[in-house]
Amino acid sequence: MTSFATLDDPSRAARLVLVGAGAMGANWASLILSTAGAELVGAVDIVPGAAARLLAGLSRNTAMAAESLADLVGAGIAFDAIVNVTVPAAHHAVTTDALFRGKAVLSEKPLAPTVAQAISLAAAAAVTGRLLMVSQSRRYFRGLTSFKRTVKALGPVGLLTNDFFKAPHFGGFRETMAQPLLVDMGIHPFDAARFILDDEPVSVYCESFNPSWSWYAGDAAATAFFTFSRGTRFRYTGSWCSPGDETSWNGAWRASSGQASVLWDGANPPVSTHADIVPLDPAEPEEIAAALAEFIRALRTGAEPSGIADRNLVSLAMVEAAVLSAQRGAAVRIADVLADARNAALGAESRAEVRAHLLAQQAGVG
Ligand SMILES: NC(=O)c1ccc[n+]([C@@H]2O[C@H](COP(=O)([O-])OP(=O)(O)OC[C@H]3O[C@@H](n4cnc5c(N)ncnc54)[C@H](O)[C@@H]3O)[C@@H](O)[C@H]2O)c1
């Protein structure tokens, strides 16, 4: 159980600063403004005017706009935490800055673009004693919880599959990434597989490619085949340039056990001809609202949230292992990816106290 600083007065609202006023930042700002127990006190974006424009479009807003966290602090704005909704490449710098200012961080996925950077961030959270949580928003769906509970009651799962076929034209950073599907989207089903199975992956074999009609520069399609520690195989097949008959954003799930198969299309309640479906809980919050609720609860009570950075590292390692496997044309072990990332994190770390923590972890005392 990781401990971290909590609110001085758990009955007051958590004062939050949104960092990153892009497409997803707008969703977060509206959510924070409509959440009891949260107060939006600032918005930051490095693009001049972007934070101000986002705030101007919101009703009931009293937050201040700025181009950096330092400007906001300089203006005397007091806050407890940031919500990091910047592009993935900025996550490490933005999160580290906030942690070392003594602020908690709720980060959009991915925690960082590499496992090494994510390990550095988890260590920075430990050193500063601040909460660092990832909003892995696709873990929070009533249908997914029902699917997981139904599957769990059936005993061991032999094969778990997820099929994801969409055709979004995002523009922006995804269209120039080398592995847009695996890196920006794969993290969701990979993390959900760990959640469904309550088990950890051991290895992966993956092939990725870019269909001839793709509007992405990098590989927009992939199949990844994971082996989990208790023997379950998890097969993910996805494409981000697949117009027509698209799946839901959660993809279509299927779990096959010795007694029954359970199917969840990612949008409607799960179905099965041979298993009793655990009903959906209508009171269960979903997506980023659920992540924010968990974050605020953690700041108030000190209860460890499911998205705490340490626990998210293996989901990120699944992504990195799949990308490596696609590059090498061979299976990759998750433990090897984590070990290499720990070494890379140590090699790249510029903060002495974080480096000391990483060294202590490697020596088995951290
Ligand atoms: N959970 C989900 O379903 C979901 C959906 C979409 C996006 N996301 C995640 O949200 C994040 C943002 O995605 P987006 O689609 O909003 O991207 P975006 O490009 O629309 O917005 C990102 C914003 O961050 C700003 N920014 C970049 N570097 C910054 C820095 N150092 N300091 C302050 N601002 C900075 C940019 O100027 C931009 O306005 C990504 O991590 C993405 O993976 C999650």
Automatic annotation (TrEMBL):
Q: Which UniProt keywords apply?
A: Oxidoreductase
| SUPFAM superfamilies on file | Glyceraldehyde-3-phosphate dehydrogenase-like, C-terminal domain, NAD(P)-binding Rossmann-fold domains
Family matches, as Pfam families: GFO_IDH_MocA, GFO_IDH_MocA_C3
Q: Where is the Gfo/Idh/MocA-like oxidoreductase N-terminal domain?
A: 15-135
Q: Does the keyword Transport apply?
A: no
Q: Which residues form the GFO/IDH/MocA-like oxidoreductase domain?
A: 178-246
Q: Which InterPro entries does this one have?
A: Gfo/Idh/MocA-like_OxRdtase_N (IPR000683), Gfo/Idh/MocA_oxidoreduct (IPR051317), GFO_IDH_MocA-like_dom (IPR055170), NAD(P)-bd_dom_sf (IPR036291)
- Family per record: Belongs to the Gfo/Idh/MocA family.
Record protein name field: Gfo/Idh/MocA family oxidoreductase
From which organism does this entry originate? Verminephrobacter aporrectodeae subsp. tuberculatae
